[in-house]
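Structure, all two chains, one model.
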Amino acid sequence: MEAMLTGFASIAQVDLLLVMLAAVLLGSFFGIVPGLGGTVGLALTIPFLFGVEPIYGIVFLVSMHAVVHTGASIPAILFGVPGTSPTAATILDGHPMAEQGRAGVAMGAQLAASGIGGVGGALALAALIPVLTPVAMAMNAPTIFALIVFGMTFIVAVSRTSIPEGFIAALFGMLIAMVGLNPHTGIGRFTFGQLWLWDGISIVVVVLGVFGFAEMIALGARGVDSTIAEGDVEIEMRWSQLWEGTKAVFQNWWLTLRTSVMGAVIGIVPGLGGDAATWICYAHAAQTCKNNENFGNGDVRGVIAVETTNNAKEGGALLPTVVFGIPGSSGMAILMGAFLIMGITPGPEMLTEHLDMIWAIVGILVISNLLCMFALYPLSGFAAKLTFVRSTYVVPPILILMAVGAFIVRGVWQDVVLAVILGFVGYGMKKWGFPRGPLVLGFVLAPLAENYLIKSLGLYGVSFVTQPIPLILLFLAILSLGYGSWESRKGKIAQGDE
Amino acid sequence: MDRGNPVKGRLRKGTNSMKSRGKTILLAFLLLIFAGSIYMDMSMGWSSKALMMPLIIASCGMAVSGVLLGYVLFFPEIFGKGNGKMEGQVISGQDVVSEDEDEVLMLFFIAALTGMILMLGFWIAMGVGFVLFMAVIGRESWKVTVIFTVMSMVTIYMIVQVGLGVSLYGGMFGLSISL
């Protein structure tokens, strides 16, 4: 209790709040520009933080990193261009809402869900530290592999009524994830002798191509006079839309709470990654919500599920980084490096000697998420109006920004070409009824699955599947697959009846 | 210029045969990729650890896409139900299908823009691309086009080159421009 009060008191200063505000705005900017994201943001700002007091540095970096996805969802909703890879899942329902002239509702829901998700994730993290820490650390390779296989069954939920197409898309995503050097053997797979393919294909390139470029092709293909918002929609975006979206988050409080906790818990598992978390929680929402037939076509609950997860998982991901010195992602690895530069050594002693620091981080997460929510509200109202701007003003700058985003990930021009090719494929998928969500889900989960499968086989042989927890998870995976297929069939029959 | 509802009137129903043809092409393309990767898996002499996952994925992909392609080719009526809609594009029960000409134009524009980026670099491609899309394809006035192009380029320059310190690709001919 004393550590909690000390931690909160250490950040309750006006100058630190101003630092947080600056970090929140910068973090949102890094999110909005496609291809930048939290990792690039951290890498770029760390050099400027040499020599500053540790508390200022930590406040700045944690605040900035916590809200990147809040900003990243703005282009995802408005243009179908994900600012960061985890926000690709926001497009599934957010962008159709913008096309229906309900961008304001999606933005309101996004901001409120992000803010509440971030706060909920931080609080869930605080509450679950003593319970989840031993559980997360006791997870062995077979358990994580089974968990990933369980996550893969959500392809069915994301595919909705096009399950075979969804599976093909997922397998295509998995296949392109295999490009590059195999971490276990050092063998270059599908690299065709090209050095730039040794590191594999960046997820930024994949989501920019499959979603971003594809959406811009679709917008341009509708004609130069077209706008993102289609059909009989009102040109004037009312501010009441923002309020309507915000209200939806509170009306769906149980979903908000569930996905916040799920996001924080998934974030804690090292190596599972934030990209997987959003898809898993989206699929969970699509499977469990009542009247779910509109998921994928502009259901506000799809936006809420993804956005709460997106911000909640950041809190979860901080736990293994700070408490055990195990960064779960490249962003967390950079953050850990920054902590070391500032003289704070992440590790188990944080729980004993610097518990106040952990509580301070929880406080920073809460405040920065709330600050970001309120700071972006006024901007969102105006940004939503961009959906009514003619495509001649929207397509060229967005295309160029995406090309720049694809280029700066690794500084190779081939990534631009790859993003464009994937854009053509993504457009074909969009046009001919192939769901694109499973492609990204497969791309994210396949390398993890391979890694843990090889580890499991190496440690226990094929008998690893008979271990109790993996066995239960694999059984749940089969159940989830069966239930999802049954739900999909039911949906198809209902669609046929209409 | 009436910009009240420019999209209205441009929506039209797609036919199942068109969608079926597109789906066939995409499925054939994916089938080819899966089959090609199986061939690569088997012919490269990779160790079992490196081979296992790609082989499983490609085999499953080939099987599922092969079966689906067979269905599309021989039982096209099955895909008339529930499978024909464009993802995320349902508006008032109408399916949105692109105008063919605009679609081809857009695909060519993106291919040309990519080609220009590769040959001439980002900055020249950016300028030419903006003018091409706005003034030539979009029929905007030259004054608006020039102002918008300059403003956009300066903004991108400020973000990328000044803010992030990243030098954009100068093209195969090395025509990098520093504004």
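The mean pLDDT of chain A is 81.
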